[in-house]
């Protein structure tokens, strides 16, 4: 088929589909290519989505029966050593009721499929099971559409939007984005553990429809810079554990063995006890931060979402950045079509929109955070061990005076980490998030 | 729990032709020191045989890690044909 479209989108994830919805609403002839059997077939994330950004694209998403797993009412952070650890949680009724669906969990296979259906209802053409293998350019260097893996699979378009995710051999082979370096991505593996809804509600102290997110840091990543999560779905838990890919390569730790260890942790095992594992998947997370963002647009093309390495590491936000950037890309495309200018200059509004939005502002704020974790492995080694030593001493009542316990803790601290090192760590940590 | 059991939970539509190819097999044995593909692949696609590294593309989770972590960039990595490979049930 050598059909001509106004816009060709590569990838039917949150970024591509958000753009497709906005473009279709504006009457722009849009085609979306998805390499999976159905949209969502290749997609994986921790499983949290954000209502604010979704509502910017589909204000009536609840009425449209968006497949929400659980409305998140509590956010937990755990800092763990091998034997135990600290838990910090925040829950309140205003967030739970008045800001319902601000954060919710989803199954990406179901959500992405539903989302793409909404774009199709609006008039976008969604073509699954089709890999885009090349992005042809004309003699002036403008991207003029896509070449798919199908026979006679060239499709012309005035503008092409790359929304094909973080693992994009296409972007690398066509020169739109360099291949990420190993230290610029984290590799995460995920398991879905099935449990009855009532069991989940009992274990997490929530009512039906409500849920909890837990982010886990510490000695659970084998000394590597990484994180784990436990998210509640309707009748399953999402467990993910991931670490910097360069750390995996250096430490020779197998991702699935790391997952097994995590599942056996004394704070994790009781939560998943009796559960039935249903799926095992793997995916990258963009860890490079602001400095890894590629050139976001050029003659006849734009890059959005994970493809553009848009990810906020400390706040585990990615799907919202994808939806927001997809929407901004679409708005820019509408502007360019009106002005009949699909060149770099015609698409410059995309860079401006992103820079003025929370997307780039947040990424700038945390530009040093990924590197901070990667370069300060104490956070995953000595520090959780020391924290656990202190915690254990404090809760043990054994006739030793508190003053003496305090001395004991400080002595152990000094033995493992110098005061100077500790201050430097705190300073660097602060600088990476301030 | 071994990796084969985990992959058994997943749904794959396997293409007979592999989407992963080692470009120069000799390099893996003679020049590659760390052979990180043997460890970091979450599906254990790469295994050390007597004189070579074997590739079982059937269980590939399509993360791309082997491609960028290979010290010699010795892996020709493509997406499986449209609709083939893993299909997430939950994601």
Throw out a few tags for this protein.
heterodimer; A: 434 residues; alpha/beta; FAD/NAD(P)-binding domain; D-Amino Acid Oxidase, Chain A, domain 2; 3 domains; eight-stranded mixed β-sheet; 37% helix; 24% strand; B: 91 residues; two-stranded antiparallel sheet; 6 strands; 23% helix
Summarize the structure.
The complex is a heterodimer of chains A (434) and B (91). Chain A has 434 residues and is an alpha/beta fold.
What do these coordinates show?
The complex is a heterodimer of chains A (434) and B (91). Chain A is α/β, with parallel strands linked by helices and 434 residues long. Chain A is built from 16 helices and 17 strands. In chain A, strands 1, 2, 7, 8, 9, 10, 16 and 17 form an 8-stranded mixed β-sheet that branches. In chain A, strands 5-4-12-13-14-11-15 form a 7-stranded mixed β-sheet, sandwiched between helices. Chain B is an alpha+beta fold and 91 residues long. Chain B contains 4 helices and 6 strands. Chain B has helices at 3-8, 25-30, 37-40, 65-69; strands at 12-13, 20-22, 46-48, 53-55, 75-77, 85-86. Classes of the chains: A alpha/beta (434), B alpha+beta (91). Chains A and B meet through helix 4, strand 11, helix 7, helix 8 and strand 15 of A and helix 1, helix 4 and strand 6 of B.
């Amino acid at each position: 088929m050598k059909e001509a479209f106004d816009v060709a989108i590569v990838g039917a994830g949150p970024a591509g589909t958000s753009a497709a919805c906005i473009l279709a609403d504006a009457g722009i002839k849009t085609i979306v290519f998805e390499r999976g059997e159905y949209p969502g077939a290749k997609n994986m994330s921790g499983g949290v989505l954000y209502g604010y950004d979704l509502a910017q694209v589909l204000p009536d998403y609840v009425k449209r029966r968006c497949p929400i797993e659980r409305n998140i009412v509590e956010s937990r952070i755990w800092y763990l050593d091998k034997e135990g650890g600290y838990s910090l949680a925040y829950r309140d009724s205003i967030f739970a009721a008045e800001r319902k669906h601000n954060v919710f969990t989803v199954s990406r296979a179901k959500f992405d499929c539903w989302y793409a259906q909404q774009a199709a209802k609006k008039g976008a053409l969604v073509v699954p099971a089709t890999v885009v293998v090349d992005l042809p350019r004309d003699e002036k260097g403008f991207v003029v559409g896509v070449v798919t893996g199908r026979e006679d699979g060239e499709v012309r378009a005035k503008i092409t939007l790359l929304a094909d995710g973080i693992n994009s051999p296409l972007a690398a082979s066509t020169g739109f984005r360099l291949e990420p370096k190993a230290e610029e991505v984290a590799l995460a593996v995920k398991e879905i553990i099935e449990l009855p809804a009532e069991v989940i509600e009992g274990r997490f102290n929530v009512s039906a429809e409500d849920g909890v997110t837990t982010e886990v840091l510490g000695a659970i990543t084998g000394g590597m810079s990484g994180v784990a999560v436990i998210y509640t779905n309707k009748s399953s838990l999402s467990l993910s554990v991931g670490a910097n890919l360069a750390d995996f390569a250096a430490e020779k730790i197998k991702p699935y063995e790391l997952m097994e260890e995590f599942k056996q942790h004394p704070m994790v095992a009781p939560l998943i006890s009796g559960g039935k594992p249903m799926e095992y998947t793997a995916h990258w997370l963009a860890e490079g931060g602001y400095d890894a963002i590629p050139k976001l647009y050029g003659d006849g093309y734009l890059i959005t979402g994970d493809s553009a390495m848009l990810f906020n590491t400390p706040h585990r936000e990615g799907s919202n950045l994808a939806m927001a950037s997809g929407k901004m890309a679409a708005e820019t495309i509408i502007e360019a079509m009106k002005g009949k200018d699909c060149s770099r200059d015609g698409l410059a509004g995309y860079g401006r929109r992103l820079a003025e939005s929370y997307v780039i502002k947040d990424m700038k704020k945390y530009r040093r955070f990924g590197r901070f974790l990667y370069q300060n492995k104490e956070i995953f080694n000595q520090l959780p061990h020391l924290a656990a030593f202190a915690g254990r001493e404090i809760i043990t009542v054994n006739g030793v005076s508190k003053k003496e316990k305090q001395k004991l803790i400080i002595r152990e601290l000094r033995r493992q980490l110098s005061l100077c090192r500790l201050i430097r760590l705190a300073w660097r940590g602060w600088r990476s998030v301030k | 729990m071994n990796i084969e059991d985990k992959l058994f939970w997943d749904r794959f539509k396997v293409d007979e032709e592999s989407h992963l190819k080692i470009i120069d097999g000799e390099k893996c044995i003679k020049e590659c020191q760390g052979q990180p593909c043997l460890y970091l692949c979450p599906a254990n696609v790469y295994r050390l045989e007597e004189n070579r590294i074997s590739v079982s593309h059937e269980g590939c989770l399509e993360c791309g890690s082997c491609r960028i972590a290979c010290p010699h960039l010795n892996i020709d990595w493509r997406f499986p044909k449209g609709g083939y490979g893993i299909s997430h049930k939950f994601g």
